[in-house]
Amino acid sequence: MNIIRGIACCAVWTSMVFAQDVISAKSGLIHYFEGVVTLDGSEVVKKNSEFTSMKEGSELRTGLGRAEVLLAPGVFLRVAENSALKLVSNDLLDTRLALTSGSILLEIGEIEKNQALTLMVGEAKIEFNRRGLFRIDANPAQVAVHDGSAVAVAGGQTLTVKEGKLTPLTGVLATTKFDKEEGDAFYRWASRRSGYIASANLTAAKRVYDQGSSFGFSNWVYNPYFGMFTFIPLHGMYRSPFGYSYYSPNTIAGYYYRPVYNPMPVGNGGGGWNPPPISDSRGMGDMGGRGGYSGGAMAAPPPPAASAPAAPASDGRGASSSSGGRGGAGGR
User: Fold this and answer.
1) SS3 string of the chain?
2) So where are the chain's domains?
3) Per residue in 267-305, pLDDT tens?
């Protein structure tokens, strides 16, 4: 199945599952933001039932705020405060960005052999071809690899940067160790965002399974209970570097929702079928504080009750047109 046909099939599948309009499949959907964020000089505002999408050549700037942008399926871009980022190409198979100031965290849950993902920082560029978690700073220009590996190219030099190492992007490229477990307020915020989206995966993947739908690629899928998109891998499970899990429809049905026989008495009866227990430890924090979900049988918080249609107030962006496509979400 070619890419165009795949986009069409996934778009139909998404609209069937969530009964929403189909939107274009491009990198650059502004999925969440807080504080002061502008796109091409105009302040991004929250609108019910809408998400703003970056176009090729668009520049996203944060003041005292942060933003989360969805690229190709499974690629999460999180932008720190006082940062500027340009989307050079929004093609899902050849996404290119340029960081001109500030910092970003790039979480890559899935990338295929025929995909290219490139970030420019000044005259240097970083090529990503593996899963992982990467911190890139513009001043001083450097890349730090928390998980996975990346290829830095600058001044005629090429260097593979592996987990736990960082390299400057000016002068001589050379790696040094850093403590990949030590994060700042921005890192902790990104971890919380990963937890929220992983939580939305549980009910979204189960709903896809219950609909009997099938698709040929991993996808961004809209979860109306949370008012956000979530990542659903095609097969198996993706476990993020932050410790949260994203399940495919078959995996969620076969593992998480599969009844577990309990030989111990249940109530007034004997043994019975019970779902696996879930523990939920939550800590909330503001932009500068610690917080996030931790623990739990699935390393993610449980889904909301079916009677609770609204997303948490801190993360709800309202409903939006569903994504489909080669897995991408984009705007009109």
Assistant:
1) CCHHHHHHHHHHHHHHHHCCCECCCCCCEEEEEEEEEEECCEECCCCCCCCEECCCCCEEEEEEEEEEEECCCCEEEEECCCEEEEEEEEECCEEEEEEEECEEEEEECCCCCCCEEEEEECCEEEEECCCEEEEEEECCEEEEEEEEEEEEEECCEEEEEECCEEEECCCCCCCEECCCCCCCHHHHHHHHHHHHHHHHHHHHHHHHHHHCCCCCCCEEEEECCCCEEEEECCCCEEECCCCCEEECHHHHHHHHCCCEEECCCCCCCCCEEECCCCCCEEECCCCCCCCEEECCCCCCCCCCCCCCCCCCCCCCCCCCCECCCCCCCCCC
2) 3-182, 186-294
3) 444 433 344 433 333 333 333 333 333 323 333 444 444
